[in-house]
């Protein structure tokens, strides 16, 4: 069995895809692309796909990860192209490596987010960010299935800054001001989401964007406490050497009970 | 097209996008489905907005819309985009922010298209049409529309009596849409190319004069003092007295949808459907679908095999439904099921056969469909509880048939059987309905006997009968909501009171109230336009949804709006019609001979059955001569060969 790890995106209007929606779409893409999937045992066999840490519905992402198990080996790059073609534009498969290490999920300890706040002046955003960073704790509330929960957002935030920008991006020219925040959040339990940080900015500085923020996950990976960097979680797989092909007898012997 | 009109067709997505974070399931509004088509606006001269007037999750899998969407988009210079009803949360925001009703394909305002085509499977979508028209900025009433407003065109089964929505639609097309939409397109194209001579009136006249497009505005309805219709008269020259339905004769020539849409959002049918035949001549007297889609036209076994193959490749679906009104009746169903099961065994593709008749069921077929070992449940529809009432409705299934069938099923590993019934059928008494409980206990007893297991279930599902136009029961009185509920209560008590079997019988029922509104709209006439309008104005939406439907609102609005007419809800629903009465849909020709329908109605009252003309002589329902068609059934004698695997 071969395991392949993929990075995919949720771009543009397809950022409104929920994780369940994506799962269905992905499994159908696997069928269309005739990927030799390994199936789970049992009454209703399912293709073996492990999803990690999906971004919330409505937020864009450049860095979602999943792992699939195949019954026959495939070239990761060819598989990536095939799946990318099979999925609707916006759900793009952008990276693929053969899994040669364990614990992809363990290497996803933080995310880098971009928050575009249309209609917010950069100076206003900067002041709010400064207030947030200066506060020892920033409590916010979120409505959950079990009622309203209060929790701290500050401790999970490793980095928050307001980027200096000059107007809006070329693809969406507008006269309105637009502030852009860069946010690095550690994956903690309970999860602190970009929305919660926005609630935090409102709590500390009354920052209230007139339109919903456009939120995009730019990267996900291992958080380096010293440098503050978020590293590519697929790098160890890429760097690990391909296992030496072992003689069939040796591997059978290794598996045999002593 | 003028610069102003082009601007009006621009995408509203930027405005919509800002609203989406605030609504439930935003994915349903963004489009981008696999196999959807976005064509260049400027290079097309006839543009259709197609609507299924219900929520996206119900509307997207609709075969009718999917077929027409593809047929139209295949034409050069023609584009079709889809639109669905928005939920009240988004409707409120769209009104607040002036975002018009939009298509999901390229988010253009519906008002910018040439045709706004709506497919009505049920009358309960009428208020949703008004919401969409209003959001689109199209005047609600046809008489108020101008030359730049789209032609509002209704189709679907409910369009066989479009009179209740006559105020709101410009025209209706009845029957199969595949060729009809192309004919309408050609007429619009020519009229536009000529510089739109004579305005909207001229376009509608050209459509009406074909004899295949009904324009309600070109007919006057005259009433008798007692409220019945005196006659329906064309008020323009060249407009025919009766409008004909459209019939596609060779389904193999129309293998649509070729590229079924695969949504990102979850919908009510998570499978690919292939229509294996159209029409039904079993002759169940309550069944409007069976009557108005005659004659039977089978798709060939090879045509079906090709559609399944191409469709699965294009979609990646894990289940194929073989669709029709009575799927086990296809002359080659055994070879189809076996051939497909052989082909897709390795690919874990499931097959399903909706609408299987008790008497057409056979265990070999059922085994082919469940090769993966899943035998969750079987569903049959005896429709009536007593032998007598089944003769009335011409559902020629005996209790012995049913018991034999379920015995085979339980003996082969099935553990659950679902039985569908109707309550309120013509001539029905309490006793006819109470016999449903006896039937269910016999099913359980037989099941326990043949399986040797106590773990046997039978679910009885029952709803109120609604008489429909173009059926032998179009003259029948509908049972009132109160009487329906009382009868269902008695049945429930009888099942619950059975100590030995009651716990193995599930009971599901729909109360009688929604059926009365459906009945009102089904057999209604133009005077109901005011009722629908009043309900809409009062906030009525999504009437097919229990949580949105309000019986009290409908009754209050009907009382008020019908007051000046002298007729009321009972007059439309629980009143029996006479032979000589002009019915509101008599000028819409479904091909069925009204004389034959009346005779069949009399036969029903006499408890006389009529056989199926596929295997007995023609009984002159009128369709074949009227439509210049004939039944088209196999067998072709061909088989499905294994597909060569290309890797």
From TrEMBL, chain B:
Pfam families per UniProt: Radical_SAM (PF04055), Radical_SAM_N2 (PF19864)
Signal peptide (UniProt feature, chain positions): none
Span of domain Radical SAM core: 266-503
Organism (species): Streptomyces ardesiacus
Protein name: TIGR03960 family B12-binding radical SAM protein
Cross-referenced InterPro entries: CHP03960_rSAM (IPR023862), Elp3/MiaA/NifB-like_rSAM (IPR006638), Radical_SAM_N2 (IPR045784), rSAM (IPR007197), rSAM_horseshoe (IPR023404), rSAM_sf (IPR058240)
